[in-house]
Amino acid sequence: MNAEPRSFEQPIYVTRPMLPELAVFTKHLEAIWESAVLSNGGPQHVELEKRLHAHLGEGHIALFNNGTNALMTAVRALDLSGEVITTPFTFAATPHVLAWHGIRPVFVDIEERSMTLDPARIEAAITERTTGILAVHVYGNPCDVEEIERIARKHHLKVLYDGAHAFGTKVNGRAIASYGDATMFSFHATKLFHTAEGGAVVTNDEALKRRMELLKNFGIADEVTVKAVGINSKMNEIQAALGLCLVDEIAAEKAKRFALAETYRHDLSGIPGITTSRRLDLETDSLQYYCLRIDRNLTGFSRDHVYNELKKFNVFARRYFYPLCSQYEPYREYADSRSDNLPVANRAGDQVLCLPFYGHLGTANAQQICAIIRHILTGRAEAHVHAA
Ligand code: T4K
After folding, report:
1. Does residue 88 have a cis bond before it (omega within 30 degrees)?
2. Which of 137, 173, 216, 313 has its CA 20 to 30 A from that of 57?
3. Helix, strand, or coil here: 13?
4. 66 lines ligand 1 (CB under 6 A)
5. Which atom of ligand 1 is nearest to the CA of 316?
6. How many distinct structural domains can be found in the chain?
7. Does the model's pTM come out above 0.85?
8. How many helices (H) and strands (E) does the chain have?
9. What are the per-10-residue average pLDDT scores of the chain (388 residues)?
């Protein structure tokens, strides 16, 4: 029986946000209304900052109105300038925050397996203008933090991590934010934990945290003293309240996502040319995205074919991160953007497909998505039967 699998009645997106019970959020709103404090570090903000230590570690946490502004503020607080080494396999925000500061992002290739910055290629890209490394824990896959630290120390470079996808990730039993000078987390609606829009920077350096707090509030030290060229990147009370409503929901959301990851891994294994994500760990991984790689030489179909065919079944997977940032207009003329400098990233960009991945998708729907993918690639919706 090779019947075509059924389409979904409603569109299935790559993600859907966790939402608290409306009544729970309303309770927080009542407290905000009562206090008439809507921003500038009010009680919701203070409380959220405290509660996040359980997930982001013991470092100092600064909250922001979005992840991009968090990164912008960290770049300024760390005094990065000249050139900064980064990855092309990321969201636009990563190189943009550098370029927005007049810093030249220098693209270095990624590792095949983790798809994060390849430390073996960093040193060749360092010049006398290099001041730092902006590495990305893409999909929540940890960078090679030890090796990056070693190279940074040797060359006196700052290390800033874009951990937009790495909420709650642990490496060697440590919170991922304990590595590097600072780590940014995004709390955008598409993230596991979110505040609709929002973000944080975590650092072990108390002085850096103080500097970020200053910069995110116009550089204002007190009513009559402005100490630095700051910006307004503060998280407001309504954002913080949403975060407080969701912070206790994280464990349940992660458990559901873990079940989805296991389903995808199990149901898509054995299709030649499909590489499923490494086995994710409930305790140490962020479970932010579930990404497949589709090798057209082995499947006979391009990733784009699968991506487009899925839409016919009402499934809207995403090609994060295609095209590479190095192919964007502002960056594509750079010598380091040439595809022969970035072969691994180019291959990844052509092969990756992020599948719908959010708690209330449910395993039955994930199984259905797998059946559709099998149908597209093999003409058979049934699960692959492993040869004995
Ligand atoms: N660094 C990295 C590595 C990042 O990935 C990001 C953001 C940043 C830095 C910057 O952090 P933020 O400044 O954003 O905090 C989305 C997100 O907007 C973006 O936050 C995220 N990365 C990026 C990977 O994905 P789009 O353009 O793909 O979003 P959009 O609107 O197409 O949403 C995807 C799907 O999510 C929709 O099809 C439906 C669903 N959705 C989305 C929203 C906004 C909902 O169900 N509800 C919603 O409210 O960028």
Report:
1. no
2. 216
3. strand
4. yes
5. 38
6. 2
7. yes
8. 13, 16
9. 84 98 97 97 98 97 98 98 98 98 98 97 98 98 98 98 98 97 98 98 98 98 97 98 97 97 95 92 96 95 97 98 98 98 98 98 97 90 50
